[in-house]
Design brief:
By secondary structure, the chain is α+β, with helices and mostly antiparallel strands. It has helices spanning about 25-40, 45-50, 95-110, 125-130, 170, 185, 200-204, and strands at about 1-5, 15-20, 55-65, 65-75, 80-85, 115-120, 135-140, 145-155. The protein is built from 7 helices and 8 strands, in the order E-E-H-H-E-E-E-H-E-H-E-E-H-H-H. An 8-stranded mixed sheet has the order 1-2-3-4-5-6-8-7, with helices on both faces.
């Protein structure tokens, strides 16, 4: 999780970016997408909620605690696909898009993915190219918009990327806080007492 706090007596908002990890945060993602894609862009419901939400990670961005932007990340062999990125209309002048994409790229990099991939609407191509993405393949269209496929190379640190040899307790941590000790590590102080009753004991 990333929090950009205010400093001094400025009026700058507090920006928080995190992995959606509760049912309420997931509902916030869906609400933002409904407002932007269905409400503003007239996307049909069944095209927006396409059956991939439960196989993906969802990222949330908050402005002073208020849901302001969301993004979905799906995981493929060798690359992560950034998609369904939206910013609520009243926050679009805050300059949130690039920092949000950068956070998503860093999230993917820390998980060991060497490439971030996305489908960008034509009006956004220059923005993606300025942010280190490059076009791959031909132009295509779906849901009434023209798209291009873009890829960004991520510098994965082989020494720190998660592998099957990584400390097991690190792999138990929340995905956006792999560098912070997790709740299951706190439980290690209790030892391995195996407090549950055996099946035979329960039957008796």
């Amino acid at each position: 999780m990333t929090v950009q706090t205010t400093t001094g007596a400025t009026n700058r908002p507090v920006i928080t970016i995190k992995l959606a990890s509760t049912s309420d945060e997931l509902m916030q993602c869906y609400m933002l997408r409904a407002a932007v894609f269905i409400g503003e862009q007239a996307c049909p419901y069944w095209e927006e909620y396409d059956g991939n939400d439960y196989s993906a990670s969802h990222l949330m961005l908050y402005v002073d605690g208020e849901p302001a932007a969301s993004m979905r990340v799906r995981w493929f062999a060798g690359f992560a696909k950034l998609e369904r990125a939206v910013i609520l209309k009243r926050y679009r002048s805050y300059g949130l898009f690039i920092p949000f994409v950068e956070w998503a790229k860093e999230f993917c990099r820390k998980k060991g993915y060497p490439k971030a991939y996305l489908h960008g609407q034509k009006r956004l191509w220059e923005i993606f190219e300025r942010d280190g993405f490059y076009r791959v393949g031909e132009t295509f269209h779906f849901s009434d918009h023209e798209y291009g496929a873009f890829v960004c190379d991520l510098e994965v640190d082989e020494k720190t990327q998660p592998t099957v040899l990584t400390d097991p307790m690190v792999l138990n941590r929340p995905e956006d806080r792999l560098e912070q000790q997790g709740i299951l590590e706190d439980s290690m102080s209790r030892g391995a007492s195996c407090p549950h009753a055996e099946w035979t004991e329960r039957r008796a």
